[in-house]
Amino acid sequence: MAEIIINEIKIDVIRKDIKNIHLAVYPPTGRVRIAAPLKTNEDTVRLYAISKLGWIKRNQRRFYGQERIPPREYKQRESHYFQGKRYLLNIIEIEAPPKVVIKNKTYIDLYVRPGAHVEKRHEIMNEWYREQLKKQCPVLIEKWEKLLDVKVSDWQIKKMKTKWGSCSIERKRIWLNLELAKKPEQCLEYIIAHEMVHLLERYHNERFLYYMDKYLPNWRKLKTELNKLPVSHTDWGY
Question: Which domains does the chain have, with CATH numbers?
Answer without folding.
Answer: 2-64 (no CATH), 79-228 (3.30.2010.10)
